[in-house]
Amino acid sequence: MRELYPPIEPYYEGKLQVSNIHTIHFEESGNSQGKPIVLLHGGPGGGCPPHYRQYFHPEKWRLIMFDQRGCGKSTPHAELRENTTWDLVNDIEKLREHLGIEKWVVFGGSWGSTLSLAYSETHPERCSGLILRGIFMLRQKELRWFYQEGASYIFPDAWEEYLKPIPVAERGNLLTAYYQRLTNPDMQIRLEAAKAWSIWEASTSRLLPDPELMQKFGENEFADAFARIECHYFMNKGFFEPEDYLLLNIERIRHIPAVIVQGRYDVVCPMISAWELHRAWPEAEFIVVPDAGHSMSEAGITSALIAATDKFC
């Protein structure tokens, strides 16, 4: 089993204005002369915590991480305007050009895998490799499973807490009910919904629930951006047309070296999506971690991801 590399600090941090509204925060760490790799965080709206740096050999990689629009250290916080999948794809390209990088490896998990696929299918010539984890393609069956009915059968106790902000009469469409509250001008209503939404995901992310993760996801600032931006994207079906857009365009990237890592018992992003991607893209190495859920911090997933990043550098 592989373990995380020791903690490191970024050697550079910066801001990049990407629209009239949005400025994204980015950082570089590791070796400034190393092989470039960009990390696309989850959510959308999750941001990049410092421990993400520890998945990459600090002497071999030039690691670029950035907080996507509206979250982390990017501004304005929790902003939904000009915040779509294709805005983020453009931001990644602007950042690559800003840093003078010709090609880079793209690393993304959960929503980060969605964005990695969208970016690489748009700019395959800029990708030297893909490392994907916890596959999510933002299709209706995936959203229904986690936010309406399915995962609720496995975590009925956590589901009960998720339902609390929503009156019984509105529970036939929980995404819509949550969206109405997460966009409410009353901050008390907004935060109650945001915390319930975020804690639901934290409660189900690991094979063995992690109280510290639930506490972090329930913090006001994090929950507000995470829940608002996620629900905004989900209400808009990921801004994909048709919903199978990522699978339908896989031919554009089948020549790119890739690794797909999936926890067998991932409840947030069930393995069916990773399996369907694997069937459409058999050239990519497919790794199923038999004793893991969704979180990249679970031992088996951590080990597989570090083995992948070591292999690509």
Mean pLDDT: 98
Under CATH, the homologous superfamily of the largest domain reads Alpha/Beta hydrolase fold, catalytic domain
What count of domains describes the coordinates? 2
**In terms of structural class, how would the helical and strand content be classed?**
alpha/beta
| Total helical elements | 11
CATH architecture of the largest domain: 3-Layer(aba) Sandwich
SSE order in H/E notation?
EEEEHEHEHHHHHHHEHEH
- Measured by DSSP, the beta-strand proportion falls in 15-25%
Core attributes:
313 residues; single chain; alpha/beta; 11 helices; Rossmann fold
Q: If you had to describe this structure to a student in words, what would you say it looks like?
A:
The chain contains eleven helices and eight strands. Strands 1-2-4-3-5-6-7-8 form an eight-stranded mixed β-sheet, sandwiched between helices. Helix 10 (271-280) links the parallel strand 7 (258-263) and strand 8 (285-289). The protein is an alpha/beta fold and 313 residues long. It folds into two domains: 12-139 and 239-312, 3-Layer(aba) Sandwich (Rossmann fold); 141-237, no CATH class. The protein has helices at residues 85-99, 111-122, 140-147, 156-163, 174-182, 187-204, 211-217, 220-235, 245-248, 271-280, 299-312; strands spanning 12-17, 23-30, 35-40, 61-66, 104-109, 127-133, 258-263, 285-289.
